Amino acid sequence: MATDHKSPEDIKWNTRQRLQYIELMAFYTGLVTRSDVARSFGISDAAATKDLKLYGQITPDNLMYRHSVFGFVPSKHFKEVFADLTPEAALPLIAANLTHTGNPTDGESLFGIAVDTLPLPIRLPEKEVLAQITRATCQHRKLAIEYRSLSDRDSSQQRIVEPHTLIDTGLRWHVRAYSDDTFDFRDFVLSRIVSATLLDEEAESSPQYDDDWVEWLELELTPHPKLSDSKQQSLLIDYGAETIIRLNIRRALIGYILQKLSVDTTHDHSLNPNAYQLVLVNRDEIEPFAGWAFL
């Protein structure tokens, strides 16, 4: 509950940015420190302390100081005042490594350049679920989840996972995690995680043991052979290539890039070349790591 000290509307924009960051950091990582604020905004420790004190005065029920970690953790009464903490707003910030949303011009373009984006369906979990996932990732902890799989497996069964990275495929978000019950690393679609609980146990896995995550391969793509010569040349110009379009990518992400670029992965290149304009040159090398994306 806000106090009479100062209302959010009375605070200058540059200060509001830092208070937004304090909320975002506390909610999605489970901890915000003076050093976090100082480093992220290039200010002194004294100035960061002042921001944290101001935040506490305005929202006295939101954060609790924990001596063991020398920082503030969200209380069970936490409620955002400055930041939009919905996954739709927070995940792009996290992905772009930004500290705040919005600007004081009320939506007016800062550059005068018109930009629009595709209105894709929202495929995200509730913010409380996402926060448990991101806290487990940041704090290197185990996570108990209820996952609605599209496989034949019983979706009501609880799974214990150890997440290490969020993945934005451009169409939906995943979390890369070690699965304690299947003893391997795999991707879980965020929108299919209907509940999540951060556990006290430390994660035993590490990204360095996730072979498909740490190993990279080079994709070799070329225009679909059923396109006309002029269309093939136009595509090569489009991708800034002479004959082969080369992309380095983690093995774990190969299937997603093939989907994103609408690559014809059939043996005989039988898909419509106007819809699937690229084919894979080094198919034999790539297919073992993304079999589900091959037709």
Account of the protein in words:
This protein is α+β, with helices and mostly antiparallel strands. The chain has 3 domains: about 10-95, Arc Repressor Mutant, subunit A; about 125-200, SH3 type barrels; about 210-295, no CATH class. It contains 9 helices and 11 strands. The protein has helices spanning about 15-30, 35-40, 45-60, 85-95, 125-140, 210-215, 230-240, 255-260, 285, and strands at about 65, 70-75, 140-145, 160-170, 175-180, 185-190, 195-200, 215-225, 245-250, 265, 280. Strands 6-5-4-3-7 form a 5-stranded antiparallel sheet, with helices on one face. Strands 9-8-11-10 form a 4-stranded mixed sheet. Strand 1 (about 65) and strand 2 form a beta hairpin. The chain is globular. The N and C termini lie far apart (about 55 Å).
Briefly say what this structure is.
The chain is an alpha+beta fold. Helix content is 29%, strand content 23%.
C-alpha end-to-end distance? 56 Å
How many distinct beta strands? 11
How would a crystallographer describe the biggest sheet? 5 strands, antiparallel
Strand content: 15-25%
Task: Give the strand order, joined by hyphens, for the main sheet.
Answer: 6-5-4-3-7
Average pLDDT rating: 93
Class by alpha and beta content: alpha+beta
Note the quaternary state here.
single chain
Instruction: State the CATH topology of the largest domain.
Output: Arc Repressor Mutant, subunit A
Radius of gyration: 23 Å
Count the domains: 3
Order of helices and strands: HHHEEHHEEEEEHEHEHEEH
What is the annotated CATH architecture of the largest domain?
A: Orthogonal Bundle
